Every structure is written in structure tokens, then in C-alpha cells.
Amino acid sequence: MVESRFEALRGSALTPLVGRQEEIEILLRRWSRTRAGDGQVVLISGEPGIGKSRLTIALQQRIDPAPLTRIRYFCSPHHQDSAFYPIIAQLEHVAGFERNDDTETKLDKLDSIFAHNSPVNADIGLIAELLSVPGGDRYPPPDLTPQRKKERIFAALLRQLEGISGRQPVLMIFEDLHWIDPTSCEFIDQLVERAGRYPVLLILTFRPELRAPWVGQPGVTALALGRLGRADVTALVQCLTGDRATLPPQIISEIVEHTDGVPLFVEEMTKAVLEGDSEPVVIASVPASSLGIPATLHASLLARLDRLGPAAKQVAQAGAAIGREFSYELLAASVGELGERALNEALHRLVEAGLVFQRGTPPAANYLFKHALIQDIAYSTLLRGMRQDIHRRIAEALEARFSSLIETQPEIAAHHFGEGLETGKAVAYWHRAGQVSVTKSAVREADTQLRRGLDLLRSLPESDERKRRELDFHITLTTALMGARGYADPEIAALLERSLQLVTETGGLGSALHFSVLYGIWVVAYVGGNAKRLLDLAREFQSLAESQATSGPCLIGHRIVGASLMVVGNYREALPHLTLAASLYQPDEHREFAFRYGQDVGATALCYLAWALWHNGFFAQATLTADRAIRHAREFGHAHTLVYTLWHAATVSLLARDTVRVAALANEVVGISAEHGFAMWLAYGNIFVGWAAARRGEVAAGIGRMRAGIAAAATTGARLFEPLFLGLLAEGLALDGSAAEALAQLDAAAAVAARTGNAAALADLRRLRGIVLQSLGAANDDGAEPAFAQAIAEARRQGSRFYELRAATSLARLWRDQGRGAEARDLVAPIYGWFTEGLDTPDLKEAKALLDELV
Questions:
Q1: pLDDT, tens digit (0-9, with 9 covering 90-100), for 249-261
Q2: What is the rounded CA–CA span in Å between residue 284 and residue 94?
């Protein structure tokens, strides 16, 4: 990984370094510490033209004989919303990607630069996907959440840096951080945090408007570059003139006066004077540019451009519209009225004047403006109509000749079409840009790009086509935000509601998209714990699904109706819906639904069926169904389906109080969730692991883990199982002898259930309340008995035979201790007598033992 030859050329022609000896000495001392193995970070801030880049080049020139690896990253104002932009550009440069390389060639090149990483294949697969290179069977894309994928990319890049720095020290420079994209900025956070671990000198340059969050961190040095004093400016002018001319003192004094100590301004003003007439020059004052560039620099650069001729000025303007760096091929396509000879002559003049640098020879040449301010000034000379025309031609050239570029960076075409007032095309490309960012796990960039497209879309006349486009944007934005914020975020709910309105208005009722939106709205309510709305949403879905020719929507409809019925506490009616849902599943026909609905619909139907079977008293069938769901999920090969299934199967075991099985399944949930970044499932798994630990005697540790898991689940917005989880925590607290806090948690759980309508665990919460009250002594039996009675009544109303048996056994024990053995037996015997399977489960064994005692 070495810096670009283009950038070395750029550095060799920068303004001579004057007045920065103290800063150079600081950098050299930091480099000495880096070579000794103590990594360093230096922040260099300063206004445009102050010499930030020149300082880094001077450092490289001073240490060049030493063995080192130079890595330079360049941020761009046109790519602030392009995820990983400086990193992708640097990787493509290091790998030596050529425009005509095929996929296998690119993969071979990636092999060569990541060969030292471990695990090699996993890293190359991630990096290939980042660079939009299909990995195919050679490096299949990993099945990860967006957040976890981003973390793994960061880890791969850090492993690469660790390998390089293990061979020789590294000088790593990120330039122009004020233009960095959010995802690359996250990577820099990790670089700064880990800098001390590697022999790396990390230099970050930026303008003062960026508030660098790394100031004050260990190993971080901040250098704020100020303007040069009069003596240094005078010395710089003399250094620039050299043997070419001796400027009169009054001219030097006027340059000093007008350039305000900014080195770039000094250089450009001096060149303007040297390139002018031989007679003394009076530097005129002109109005400041709209960009806020000081008038002296603006005037001098305009004068220099004018002296180069109209063709050179036109080429500079077109290049500036393309960006800081531009290719000969794209430039030629964008200024088609200039012949090849005139174009080459104009470029030669710009290069000779030092305004742009050149790499390669036409037509394979690339050009770079010496400084972003020079690009800005050239661009500012374009009149509005000319500006729109040149952007439109650039965009059309990109479509015609650079399809691979805009396939991976569609935001470039979106920008140029937008500036060219081709709003329809700009909207389409902003949508594609958002989709590409979603695949790169860059949610903030996707959010910005999609909202830009929506803003442009609103400027178009209202029509069905506009509504369909808006719907596409909302769906993509929903996908992006769900990956980052979870399912229950209020903005996601609003997006889905608007999407549903748009589906209706555009005649999409009954379409696959309509079902996806309805399902999304249901999921938001489900995960967010809004049980009062769940059943209505589910029945709306099912009603619509019944009119469909295919079985997929009907399967999902019965599944979510069944799940909703269980949430509101109707296990009796839930069972037939879930039985039908499971029976409708056809693997070949319904496999694709996993990628539309988040998990395989067959596995989810079996999960809920297992729950319903347990509540309805069929323990053996519930266990077999849960095992069948796990087998199916393992064979399906989809990480999210597997973790979903394992946790739901663990819930069946938790309901049955099988501590060993709960621990085994929940630990697997935790492992998969940690690997793939499934934050909600990680929290859920930890709650179950904590409960199992408390049940086997590790009470304090179990309580701590449950508390942490409940807090982590809340941060994802997931509230569905809150009453259940608070009940599990109360159970652990009761085991710890903390009866008062246990009662407080049970009160909180009951309040949540009442507020949301989530009655799924209500019967057992009431039973647990009775148990805790009993633990406080016989004086509390008067409170325990109604709690048990309420639990029995609730379980009967819901159709949960196991909850009914468990509560009846608890009340019967109380009556037994009060000398009411006959009543106790009459209560438990008929309930126990109903069961025909699961007789060796804790609930049935305890009930049987009590009945035997009451004979």
C-alpha cells in the first residue's frame, strides 16, 4: 500500500515551505516515536491554502530515506455522502484496478494485497463486496447484518494495517477530513483509538469548521496552522521569484498586504505578477467572489486563466465541474465542441501554468487541480446556463462511456443530472445511490442520498409515476433504517404508513409490495409491543391474502394472526391458525420470502405453532415442532432465520422450565448474534442465559445478566416481551431473597401488560406474585390466594392449560398448608387428568406428587 504517483507529483510542485520549522520539528519527533513502536496521531487544522498538504509533503521529503510505507487517503467535496469513498479509492489504487479488468482479474489483485490477512477468504469477500466486485463462489458474500458487515470491514482493514506496520513503520495521511463521509469517519475513530498499538503515524488534515472529536485523546497532537507573518511572506515571495526576477520592494509590500499571510494566496499573487507585463504592476481590488475567496486571490487566478486563452479557461471550467480530479476521456466528452488538438493545447497550458497536474498521456491521462480553491474559482466563472449545460453533458458522458463507474457510484451521475436540471434522471440515480449504500451497510449515507432524491422528486408535477417513485424511495429508506435502528423506530412506522397510502393511491392493492408494507407495519407494532393494534393489522393482512392465488400471503396471514392472538392472550384460537400456516409451507415456493420478510416463513410458522401447542397442553408435540423448526433453520442456511428459530425454541423450553435446554439454545443465540450483529437477539439471548444461571444457583450473576439484557433490548425499541422478561427477573430476585424488589418488577410487568394489551404472560405473572407474597410469610397468604385465583382464571380465559395447571398447583399447596386438602385435590385432579403427554415435565410431575400427597 503506497501513495499514488500522481500525489507524489502533486507534492513536488507545491508552494515552498516557509515559516513552518516548528511544526516540522514536532512531526519529526512524532515520527521518531512511531519508528520506536509508539504509534502517534497528529491533527493538522487550518484554513484553505494555509499549507496543510505542503506540511505533510515536507515531512515525507525529510524522512524519505527511511524504510516506511506511505498510505494517503483523499476526501472529496463531491463524495461526502459516498460511503467509504477515500478507502475505496485508495484500495483500488493499491490493487492496481484498471478500467477493463474483469472480475477474476480484480479478485486476483485483491488476493495479492490481502494475502497476509487471517482469515484471508473472509476478508477478501468483504473487501470485494465493498469494491462492488462480485465474489461469486470464490468469495461468497457473508450473511451479516449491515452493522456487523461494516464492523467486519473495519476489522479487515485494521488487520491489513497491522500486517503492513509489522514489516515497517507506516505514515498514514487522511487529507481534507472536512469532506469525509460518515462511514469513513467511523473508521478513523477506530484508527485513532488503536493508533498506539501499531508503529503508525496517522496525520489528519482538515479545515477549522470540522470539530475534530479526537482532540485530547491519548497520543493525539493537535497543530493549528496560523497565517504567516510579514517576514515569512516576504521570504516566500523571494523564494518563489528565485532567479527569474527581482520585484520592486513596493510590489512585494503590496503582495504581503493583499495576501493576508496565506501561502497559496502568496504563490498565486506572485505568479500573477511574474506572468504580467514587465512594467511594475498595481494589484487592483476587485469584488469578493460568491465563494468567499479573498478578492486578491480570485482576481489573480482569473487574470492567469484569462492570459492562458479562452480554450484553457473553458477546459478549466469543465474540469472544475467534474471535480478536483478528472480524466481526459470524461473531459473530452464534456467539451465536445473543442477539437482534440485544441483540447490538448489547452490542457498543456494549464499544466505549464501549474494550475493542474497531469498523470499519464492522453487519452489515458488524468488531471488534478493544484488546490481545491483553484477548482472553486474556475467553477465560479461559469454562468448559470453554461453551468447547467456542462453538468448535463458530463452526466450524459458518464452514462454513455462510464457505466461501470456510475454502477458503483451512482451519486456522481445524480449530482451532475441534478445540477443540469435533469430532475427525473437525478431522482433515479439518487435512488440507486441509496440502494448501493444500503448494500455497503452505510445507513447515514443512504439516508442522505435517499432524502436528496425525495426532495428533488417533490419538485416534479404530481402524478401516479411520482407516487410510485416516492414509494420506491420509502421502501429503500425503510430497509436502511430498520437495519440501523431496529423494527420499532417511530420514523420507520411513519415511513411504512406513508408507503401504505402510496400503495393504495397507485393501484398496488394486493401486490407483493402491498403485503410487504402491511407486514412491516405489523412487525413495527409487534416488536414495539403495541398489542392493541396487532390483531386488527393481522386480520387485515389475512383478509387480503385470502383473495390471492398463491399460498404465500395466506401462510403469512395465518401466522401473524396466530401470533397476534397469542400476544393478546388467546392461545385457544391461535392454535388452528398456526397449524394451518405450518401446513401451507412449501420450501421451493416460499424460500424467497425469507429475504422479503426477514426470516424463512416456514421456520417462523413452526416456532409459533410450538408455543401454541405448549399452551394448549401438548408438550411432546410442542417439543417435536420446535426441534423440527431448528432442523429446518440449520438446513436453510440463513443466519437470521437460525437465530430467530433458536430463541423461539428456547422459549418453549423456558415455558416448560427445562433449564439445561434453555441455557444451551440461548448460548447459541448469543454466539450467533454477537458474530452477526443481531442486537435485539443478543439481548434476548442474554436474558435467557441469565435466567438459566439464576435457576441453577448462580443467582447474582444471573440477575445481573438479565438486567443487562433487558436494558439492551430496550435500546433497540423492542418492547414485545417486556412483561415476560420482567417476570423472569422477578423470579431471579425472589430466589435471591429480594422479595420487595421482585414484587416491584411484577407490578411493572402488569402495568406494561395493561397499557399495551400484551397479556401473553399475565397468568404466570399473577402466579409469581402469589409465590413471592408467600415467601414473605404466612401473614401474606391472604394476598397470595387471590393472586393464584386470578392466575387460574386468566389461564382458563386464555386457553393456556400449562399456566392453569401451574397456578392451580400453587393454590393447592397453599390450601394444603391451611388444612384444605380435599379442596386442593378437587382443584388439581381434573386439570391434571386432562393431560396425555409431557407427564415427565416439571409442572406435571409436581402436580402428580401433590395429588399423591393429598390422597
A1: 777 787 777 778 8
A2: 47
